[in-house]
Amino acid sequence: MMNKMVVANLAHRPTRSLITMSAVALEVAMILLVVGVFYGYLNGSKESQHGIDADLIVMPPSSSMLPGLSGAAIPVKVKDILGRMPHVAAAAPVITAFSQKPLEIVYGVDLETFDLVPPKFVYLSGGRFQGPQDAIVDDYFASMNHKKVGDTVEILNHSFRISGIVPHGKGGRKFLTLTTMQDLIGAENRASVFYLKLDNPANIDAVMQEIQATPGMERYSVRSLQEYLSMMTPDNLPGFNVAIEIVIGIAVIVGFLVIFQSMYTAVMERTREIGILKSLGASKVYIVNVVMRETLLMAAGGILVGILISLATRRVIMDVRPVQKLYWSNLWMLRAIVIALVGAMAGAVYPAMKAARRDPIDALAYE
């Protein structure tokens, strides 16, 4: 009986019910999509780094775990020091620069040494840099943007000619010469990171100790590739978790306020109805139960719609932009559901209590 009354109340006010469900759906979709973008970017960075088959990575102290966020603080002449060390087969200096339009990491490489760190570039079309205004792009970027060798592409607000197209997976999607990147970001004769390839991975510990024992090199951070990848977590990225928490907080506030306003308005509109129920013997618990069940039903509908919107949006984005990594986690979906339910029920508590405290005589006399 109570459930039928709850459904009838929602159906009697379809506009209010739809608006409330839409707010909850927006809350859930906001959480899932923002988390998908943030974690997708993190996982995409890990995949791109894993595609560079280096044994060791040499970085400046206190550098960010994400490429492109630490500038270029290592003198390129460090390559000579590293190259002379026992068991070092290749020392490749690389500059990584963060681009906001579009959101990506651009690599500045010295092809002679970068190709010594597997896998070596295989050109699907075109070839190596022919000059400082040339760029190499991967097949994903070329396919998505309908680019071919000889076309112009904008990188870091400058125009470059595509000289070659390579398979995706080794670092970034766009590559410039090391010297060109140094000029663009004002880092003459400097690099962001050195990728080291050893003659045998078994010598990793020995080479790390050798680097740390070399005068002038002890301040640099030296890690194996596996250690570096294991450290690319939200906890090691300044502001990552804070940004997600801010978005979740905003989403919860939006959901709470809309539920609160909706249920408060519903209680005021149904003052006489509440009075009739109480005059017929309905207890305070019964009245609270009715209001909370209505809220729960609208929240459940909004959550379902929000999840469907998130999945559809994710699919559209990945179809249109296959280079865009979007993370999906059932655990985060469960978190979004719990967050939306808690926010919705919290927003309905005061209206429910207000309805339960209504005096039946006053309620029946209400116009």
Structural Rg: 29 Å
Quaternary structure: single chain
**Main sheet attributes: strand count, strand direction, barrel closure:** 10 strands, mixed
**Overall pLDDT metric:** 82
Principal-axes geometry comes out as elongated
* Beta-strand fraction estimate: 15-25%
Gap between N and C termini: 27 Å
Order of helices and strands: HHEEHEEHEEHEEEHEEHEHHHHHH
Query: Structural class per helix/strand content?
Result: alpha+beta
Number of strands: 12
Number of helices: 13
Q: Roughly how much helix do the residues carry, as a percent range?
A: 40-55%
Low-pLDDT stretches are none
Write the layout of secondary structure elements.
Layout: H1 2-12, H2 14-50, E1 56-59, E2 74-75, H3 78-83, E3 88-100, E4 103-109, H4 111-114, E5 125-126, E6 134-138, H5 139-144, E7 152-155, E8 158-166, E9 174-177, H6 178-185, E10 190-191, E11 193-198, H7 204-213, E12 221-224, H8 225-230, H9 240-269, H10 271-279, H11 284-320, H12 330-356, H13 360-364
Parallel strand pairs: 4-9, 6-8
Antiparallel strand pairs: 1-11, 1-12, 2-10, 3-4, 3-11, 5-8, 6-9, 7-8
Helix pairs in contact: 1-11, 2-9, 2-11, 2-12, 9-12, 11-12
